[in-house]
Design a protein that fits this description.
Helix content is 21%, strand content 25%. The protein has 130 residues and is α+β, with helices and mostly antiparallel strands. The protein starts with a helix and ends in a 10-residue tail after the last helix. 2% of the residues are buried.
Length: 130
Amino acid sequence: MSEKTLKIARAKRLSKVNFEVCDAYALKELEGDFNAGCANFWFSHIPKDRIEEFIRAFHHRLGKGAVVFMADNLFVEGVGGRLIRKEGDPNTYKIRELSDGSAHEILKNYYGKEELIRIFGERPTVSPSI
């Protein structure tokens, strides 16, 4: 979340779109009725042990028949920093270097088709479009 990014988005004055700062795992606190949900380039940053928690919170805020759109990156060797694994940790991480020379470790999980079907495909209210 970046205030600068939210300011740019809000300046577009899109009809029927609200930009809010909220905890993705505690969406019950978000007021309103929603007939659609969008989570772009977020899923790969969810710790694997919190996926179910996020999905439940996300769908709790959506009405029956709501449209959900999610998009994220595919793993491409050499793009977006060096991928690292930690012993005993199911998550993967990227080392990202910024223009100021600083390096930062971020959680970045990548999924294949079979994994996404396993995560989303067994849900009666969710059907993946892959």
